[in-house]
Specification:
This protein is mainly alpha-helical. It contains 10 helices and no strands. The longest helix is centred in the last third of the chain and has 20 residues. It is globular and about 40 Å long. The N terminus is likely disordered.
Length: 199
Amino acid sequence: MMEAQEPATLDPVDAERARLFALLGRLLGAAPDAGLLIRMRALRGEQGELGEAYAALAAAAGRSTAETTEREFFNLFIGVGRGELLPYASYYLTGFLHERPLADLRADLARLGIERAEGIAEPEDHIAFLCEAYAGLVAGAFPGEADATAPFFTRHIRPWAARFFADLEKAETAEFYRAVGRLGRLAVEYEAAAADLPA
């Protein structure tokens, strides 16, 4: 959904964080195709909640096809008129679309040199765009301030994304995406907990 530069060499923990948020961004930007579902079936979770969430996503990918996830994605996020969920920061924070959170985000993106890729119609406060932007910041893939990652998370993801992912976990039309919701919720909760640790 956006344009990034080649990432620099990363600490392994940061590389895993970047991969996790990039995966979330990919899955929330469009339904997974058959190739991605096959690759996700090979995911192996380590011990702990996050590992269990990866294993649940692999199992969900194993039960899904590109056709079923495409239909599920449509019902959840597009729908006839609208989908079951509105995956936008403005909506979660104000109850309306295209509100102040989007304007604030656009100002920060401009300052950081992050641009939406051409041909993308969704506003930048879509959860997929935010996950991809955060992945790029963690990976050092964008020009701009080196210490922008934590403020970006605190300002644009932390206030609402865990609620969105929790809603996705219990959405009526979610099957495959229930596992995506769990993984996303835990990712945001872990990032928030890490941000709260003393420096």
